Amino acid sequence: MAMKIHPVILCGGSGTRLWPLSRDLHPKQLLALTGEDSLLAATARRVHGGAFAPPIVVCNEAHRFMVADQLAAAGVAEATIVVEPIARNTAPAIAAAAALLEAADPDALMLVLPSDHVIGNREAWLAAIGAAAAAAAAGHLVTFGITPTAPETGYGYIRRGAPVEAVEGAYSAERFVEKPDLATALTYLDEGAWSWNSGMFMFPAGLMLRELARFEPEMVEGVRAAVAGATSEGPVVRLSEPAFAAVASISVDYALMERAERVAVVPSSLDWSDVGSWAALWEIAEKDDRENVAVGDVMVEDTTGSYLRSHGPLIATLGLKDVVIVATDDVVLAAARDRSQDVKRFVSRLRSAQRPEAVSHALVHQPWGAARTLDSGPDHLVRRLTVKPGRSLSLTAVEGRSSRWTVVGGAARLARDGCAGLTLTPGGSLECAPGEVLRLDASGAEPCEIIEVQSAASAAGQT
Fold first, then answer.
1. Which residues touch 343 (CB under 8 Å, ≥6 apart)?
2. What percent of the chain lies above the pLDDT cut of 70?
3. What is the CA radius of gyration of the chain?
4. Rounded-to-integer distance, Cα 277 and Cα 306, Å
5. What confidence tens digit (pLDDT) does each residue in 84-127 have?
6. For 462, which DSSP code?
């Protein structure tokens, strides 16, 4: 890997099969599911420094500030964050990154990685990247294959053909098959020439765009227009919404890889998982002597083969086998472990009913900090706000309700229109009439903690 490789990390998706922990505003790639790092942070660390250039991370606006915070916490300081105004699947997202890279170097090698994969065996991983880089530099579009360990029916498969000339470890991609049935998957394992389709790729940026334009010319034209009309703010590049919204939504496999001619596959035996379900997490996690995985506040009696995870109340199990139980502040999921792929059905029902449990947790992360709902009803709302040092926000007393903000930690400077402002320390509070707007600045060195109480009471004043 003599030349720099440009990681492109795809950070879209909602991870519905990992509900109730994964939700629209805090999806699985931004969760710490396998250790202290989120899946995104672990992916960014994996391709940081050495032969790798600073990454390009493609995400949506709702996640942009969390992406930036997690990259900074992971020590990946020079990333470019490309914001999609609307989700358009993997082909347009990758094409946008390719267009940005091509402007500086048409031959730039881009390593495309989903942000939600777990990869072990770093030595084999780097060897696969080396082979893929050599094949891509020789003019191939390269996909990474995973040596199957089971007849999985939830993955696509790739059949390898003849070796790529002068590139050890790379083969022509002879055939793609999308999610075969069990009998077919078993024949693939017996045959030995098939790999799981990992969704990871290596392309020269210019070649990727030229080949994609052969099959999807309108898509490439629209993506180029979205990049040309993009706005930049520091490391953040926001694609033009009108241009990008007009682009077709299609995966890179369908748009390009299954249609192009010079496609190569690099098979590799990695400790790999796409963390696609609670059962997949159970498979890769460390287990006790009864094959249980317990995370958080969990007590177990006569339970085997189960995945038990609490981010809220105590989970206590007795006499259970092969189950998944996941508890958050507002939801408890209980499922047979072999049915965990079907958890997404609940998300569909919740969205149809317009219930918030599909979208957000009780704790909602914001650019300025976080807000946790403590209690709510038709005529009241109680929240705890955590404002990061140096950050600001506007607080609005909802029409029909008065609002009181009480500082319980740190310091806050609150200003009304036409007033110089008031600095509050723990115990200090301010009450506002319906519709009134305040500006809050976290003025201390520590986060500012505030209890917000909205009620139908009409009184307004200052204490």
1. 16, 17, 18, 19, 277, 278, 333, 335
2. 97
3. 25
4. 13
5. 999 999 999 999 999 999 999 999 999 999 999 999 888 999 99
6. B
List residues bridging with 354 in a β-sheet. none
- pLDDT given for residue 451 in this prediction: 95
pTM of the predicted model as reported, rounded to 2 decimal places: 0.90
Longest dimension (CA), the chain: 80
- Say whether 90 sits in a helix, a strand or coil: helix
Please tell me the distance from the alpha carbon of residue 330 to that of residue 376, in angstroms, as a whole number. Answer: 12
Among candidates 408, 410, 417, which has minimal Cα distance to 391? 410
Pairing of strands 380-387, 369-377: antiparallel
Strands (E), 129-190: 141-146, 157-163, 171-177
Distances, alpha carbon 142 to alpha carbons 79, 290, 350, in Å? 24, 42, 39
Q: Which two tokens stand for residue 184?
A: 């077919």
Q: Where are the domains of the chain?
A: 5-273, 281-344, 363-455
Q: Which helix (H) or strand (E) holds 284?
A: helix 278-284
Q: Are 195 and 202 in contact (CB under 8 A)?
A: no
**How far apart, in whole angstroms, are the C-alpha atoms of residue 206 and residue 209?**
5
DSSP string, 102-134: HHH-TT-EEEEEETT-EE--HHHHHHHHHHHHH
Q: Give CB contacts under 8 A, 24+ apart, made by 159-164.
A: 159/188, 159/193, 159/194, 160/193, 160/194, 160/195, 160/265, 160/267, 164/135, 164/138, 164/140, 164/264
Torsion-angle region of 450 (φ positive above 0: left; ψ -120 to 50: alpha; else: beta): beta
For residue 344, the SS3 value is helix
Prior bond to 267 cis, omega within 30? no
| Antiparallel, parallel or unpaired: β 332-336 and 369-377 | unpaired
Q: Which CATH topology does 363-455 take?
A: Jelly Rolls (2.60.120)
Between vectors from CA 370 to CA 294 and to CA 71, what angle results, nearest 5°? 75
CATH number of the structural domain 5-273: 3.90.550.10
Q: 459 vs 299, 404, 408, 434, CA distance in Å?
A: 48, 10, 22, 9
By 3-state DSSP, what share of the chain in percent is helix, strand and coil, each rounded to 5? 30, 35, 40
Say whether the peptide bond before residue 20 is cis (omega within 30 degrees of 0): yes
Identify any residues that bridge with 204 across adjacent strands, giving them in sequence order. Answer: 109
Give the model confidence (pLDDT) of 228-239 as tens digits.
Answer: 999 999 999 999
Tokens at 230, concatenated: 């993009």
From the centroid of its chain, how far is CA 85?
A: 16
b/e code 133-159 from CB counts within 10 Å (16+ = b): bbbbbbebbbbbbbebeebbeebbbbb
